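BUG-489 | component: ligand-complex export | severity: low

The export step for beta-D-fructofuranose jobs runs without errors, but we want the raw record kept on the ticket for reference. Input record follows.
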Amino acid sequence: GLMSEQWRPQIHFTPKAQWMNDPNGMVYHDGEYHLFYQYHPNSNVWGPMHWGHAISEDLIHWEHLPIGLYPDSLGTIFSGSAVADVDNTSGFGKNGKTPLVAVYTNHSHEKESEGRIDYQTQSIAYSLDNGRTWTKYEKNPVLDNPGIRDFRDPKVRWHEPTQKWIMTLAVKDRVSFYSSPDLKEWTFESSFAQDEEHNGVVECPDLFPLNYNGQEKWVLFISLNPGFLHGGSGTKYYIGEFDGKEFIPDDPNAPTHWFDYGKDNYAGVTWSNIPEEDGRTLFIGWMSNWQYATVVPTEQWRSAMTLPRSLELVEGAGGKPVLKGEVVNTIENIAGDWQEKSDLPVAAAEAGTLEFSFEEDAAYQLSLEFDIQMDATATIDLYNEAGDSIFITLDKNRELVVFDRIDSGETTFNENFPGKYDAPVAFEGPVKVDLYVDQSSVEMFINGGKVQMTNLVFPETLLTGVEIYGSGDSQLITAKARVLNSIWK
Ligand code: FRU
């Protein structure tokens, strides 16, 4: 049935039907987390964009709502953000009701077909009924196109020190910052150009503060297509200072920080208006890659979001800050009891199977801890009866983890899908690996999320088998798993 077809994610957000890409307009208001998304209601491939809409009280269970924003005379509705205008700076509020204001890109296909390049402009709409219905501002667009082909994806936040709204905008090969007192009049502040090694187009940027060792730092997210480390689209970030005008990276010569080393986490940004007493910085990404997103082997719907993650800046290798992402703790709401293994089979170079009881039509979390010495490796093989497998190998000498999905099931729909993808790992003591395994994805978090890796897989059935093997002096220290029940039941 619906929401239980082959490969239908059971613990990830998907639209009931048709095409989805980027998450949009994420804002928390009145006990509801809003998730809008790039949506094409008439087809399972990309087309004229709308904002689909869903809400959640725990970021885990989602309720599908009617489409939030439809195309209009200025164009279709590309990516953007939403804020709760609690001080009614926009004047859209009435009778003390806080307006939710969406800031998005209008893409004029009409202008584009006339051969013009100024077809992307920024517009706003507001809602006085908790995002259920929206009114577009009569003076749209609020930010006209200056003659630049790629001019989109506004991400807006309130900047307390300057008492202004800041818009972070993707502008071709750079990010531009604009400011506004009221979300209607926007003033250019500055641009931040990324380093030259990447020649893709910048998309869906985000700028947000995080605490690092008691100090405020600003993180700038840049989604890049193409130009990702492992091909296609991916997201990198910079750490630095922001004064309401300019972003200055702390270390302009730092090697590229990739947010997620898997192939399938793109265009992700953070939620607006998380209450101060909560204090979390919450993220969700689009779980696909533009290399093959339109041809993945699902029919009823196409694409899912990643699991929502909480972000923090922590000390990484060499005492440098690193952005860590962990699955939000409300995952507990769907978790079964931990099944813990005591007699661990794997010592040096010995293979062993870990028997857990999983549900074929649900998902699960697997949590393993290894002690790996020099010249040693440890491999996790997740498999099914159909002979599909993924292999995750921790390699101490190379200080890497490698995720191999070459034999993971259906892989032939695009030549860029099968492959082995690596990520740097600091082996400073035991290595903890957490895997969230759903019907068509595996999300890996190493050492509490210091390394994140999100990959799609299309196995015949859920990969419920767990085999561990190693070479050299590697030891499995702890092993536990638990069922994650479907969010749709
Ligand atoms: C990123 C993106 C955005 C754009 C949207 C269109 O995936 O290309 O830059 O606004 O998708 O659907």
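Assignee comment: Attached the raw record above. The pocket of beta-D-fructofuranose is lined by residues 21-22, 38, 49, 78-79, 105, 152-153, 203-204, 267 (CB under 6 Å).
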